[in-house]
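TASK: fixed-backbone design
INPUT:
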């Protein structure tokens, strides 16, 4: 397998997730609460044979001290893709920063930001370099 094929094979789960998110968006359209899209997307991904966890508990620590603050990851697909879902009119920088924070805290390799709240489905993919921790938008080849 050449490098481009290998790269594209690693991205295939995100293509599947985006495709199923498009199905959810076409059926439900904008206007529902985020949890409705989340439940539908989880169901469809599981039908595709993917392992999906919903509302994954994410505690916050300062060094070794657990703080009185918790977060929840909308969907964790497999063990390396965080899906942060939104149902808002438009995506802004704070939504992307939230996903990046979750990726950094958990050291998760891939993240997806999906917005069901606008006329067209919004989906953006990100990769976290495991050695540097740098996050960048995924480039399709």
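OUTPUT:
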């Amino acid at each position: 397998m050449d490098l481009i094929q290998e790269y594209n094979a690693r991205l295939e789960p995100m293509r599947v997730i985006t495709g199923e998110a498009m199905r959810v968006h076409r059926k439900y359209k904008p206007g529902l609460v985020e949890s409705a899209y989340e439940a539908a997307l989880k169901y469809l991904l599981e039908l595709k044979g993917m392992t999906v966890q919903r509302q994954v508990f994410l505690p916050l620590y300062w060094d070794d001290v657990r703080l009185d603050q918790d977060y929840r990851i909308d969907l964790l697909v497999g063990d390396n893709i965080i899906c942060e879902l939104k149902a808002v009119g438009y995506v802004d920088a704070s939504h992307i920063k939230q996903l990046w924070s979750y990726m950094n805290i958990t050291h998760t390799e891939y993240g997806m930001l999906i917005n069901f709240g606008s006329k067209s489905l919004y989906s953006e993919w990100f990769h976290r370099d495991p050695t540097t921790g740098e996050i960048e938008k995924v480039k399709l080849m």
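COMMENT: The domain at 3-137 is CATH 3.40.1350 (Trna Endonuclease; Chain: A, domain 1).
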